[in-house]
Amino acid sequence: MLAEHKELARKLNELERKTEMLALKHDTLATETHAQFREVIEALRQLMSAPAPRRRPIGFVTSK
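The chain above was modelled as a monomer; its predicted structure follows.
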């Protein structure tokens, strides 16, 4: 599973680099598309990161 994450991260970096190169070459339409790709890539990176562990409260818990 870890190898899959590394491969996905590598592919995301490659996709990001390619979209940046296209945005530099083309007009505003490519720039807008690049911004959309950036949002998608960032969302995928957030999904790839491990969730923060849930912290249990310290002390006693009473029911209401």
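The mean pLDDT is 78.
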